[in-house]
Amino acid sequence: MAYTINGEAVDALPPEDVGGVTFVPLATLVETLGGYVTWNNAAKTASIELGNKKADVTVDEDNVTSDGETVTLSSRPSMARGSLWVPIDLFSDVLGCTVTQNGDNISISNV
Prior knowledge:
The protein is mainly β. It has one domain (about 5-110): Copper Amine Oxidase, Chain A, domain 1, CATH 3.30.457.10. Helix content is about 10%, strand content about 50%. The strands form 3 sheets. It has a 5-stranded antiparallel β-sheet, covered by helices on one side. Strand 10 (about 80) and strand 11 form a beta hairpin. The longest helix has 7 residues, at about 25-30.
């Protein structure tokens, strides 16, 4: 088991370590948290809604626009295996979730 979301085990693509930064598949985890992700293929941007948080994440851009503010992530999001992969700090620093990591086991909560 790689992920626990709001206390429930979730089957998703496992996290990946890239240069010391943990990357996770964005849409799967946001949707499991009860949020929504829409994809703009032309702009290579995912728009996220999770609770009262909104954010736009663009491939290869480490700056994320969230509720009118700019937040710099630890690394740039990228496309892999048909998904947008983001550094795990997006969930804590942008979406306000509680994130804990123990090796490959990641717990994310927004409740």
